[in-house]
Write a structure and sequence with these properties.
By secondary structure, the protein is an alpha/beta fold. The chain is built from eleven helices and seven strands. The strands form two sheets. Strands 3-4-5-6-7 form a five-stranded mixed beta sheet, sandwiched between helices. The protein has a two-stranded parallel ribbon with strand order 1-2.
Length: about 280
């Protein structure tokens, strides 16, 4: 997700610094972005010169102090409050007080993250939908103390990326995550109960409701461990059984079948993240 955001920013002509845990992760992120752009070139989506221009706008670092001159920060790490809160505290120390910090969290509390800083009025949510370069919406989430000025700034950034911003007053799951998770969960229950295969579930939903991909392939793209984490957060916050993760999802996550990133989830994928077609049983 973070790589997709960086790529979208660079494509919009904005200079980007990717902050990673260490130099090895920095090089890996830059390599993956380059690889993704090569796939777009192969599909005639962009030219080689456009790729070069985008990569020239993306730098990498493992040090917070190298972010001191940035105008805006988007956090996009694992969906875990403790991990995110540590990042927000470090960012708050490293950045001038006027710099806005936004989180790409899909379910966690912006108000609670903002409380980790000395600038709660300059903290908001900016939730993109995966894959970031292809989805045309961005949720702009207000925390309790988020200022109108900050909301306007975040909306303007979203528009500059070609996204339509929708304003959300903080509530668990916001709009997109809250609505999509029960669909994904129910599709998993249909497979677990032996009603239909994963392939047939996705075919039925894709063709029946004109979806770009079926719900199970969508879950694979999101990352099954991320889907489970988001469901756990909403189940804990709201207590609604519709957000209780399907046992099949839990089993797959424990087995390390996380979807596209592990090349195996409800479907199998090649090294480029493309779905591998499997022969159906008669």
């Amino acid at each position: 997700m973070g790589q997709g955001i960086a790529r979208s920013l660079a494509q919009a002509g904005i200079d980007v610094i990717i902050k990673e845990l260490n130099d090895k992760n920095v090089q890996s992120a830059l390599k993956q972005i380059s690889k993704g752009l090569d796939q777009e070139i192969a599909k005639w989506g962009i030219t080689k010169s456009e790729k070069a221009a985008m990569l020239s706008r993306i730098k990498g670092t493992s040090k917070y102090e190298e972010l001191k001159n940035v105008d805006f920060v988007i956090e996009s790490i694992v969906e875990d409050f403790e991990a995110k809160s540590k990042v927000f505290k470090e960012l708050d120390k490293a950045l001038p007080p006027e710099v806005t910090i936004v989180s790409n969290t899909s379910a966690l509390s912006i108000t609670e993250l903002a409380a980790c800083t000395q600038r709660p009025e300059r903290v908001a949510g900016l939730h993109f939908v995966n894959p970031v370069p292809k989805r045309l919406v961005a949720e702009v989430v207000r925390g309790l103390h988020t200022s109108n000025e900050t909301v306007a700034q975040v909306k303007e950034l979203a528009r500059s990326l070609g996204k339509t911003p929708v304003e959300v007053f903080e509530y668990p799951g916001y709009i997109t995550t809250r609505i999509i998770l029960p669909l994904l969960n129910e599709a998993m229950h249909v497979v677990m109960e032996g009603v239909a295969s994963a392939e047939d579930v996705d075919t039925a939903m894709q063709l029946g409701y004109d979806l770009p991909v079926g719900p199970l392939e969508m879950a694979d793209q999101m990352g099954l461990e991320e889907v489970e984490s988001q469901m756990e957060t909403l189940f804990r916050e709201l207590g609604d059984l519709k957000f209780r993760p399907c046992p099949l999802l839990r089993k797959m996550v424990r087995a390390g079948h996380w979807g596209v990133k592990s090349r195996r989830g409800f479907f199998r994928y090649d090294e480029n993240g493309n779905k591998v077609e499997q022969q159906k049983r008669l």
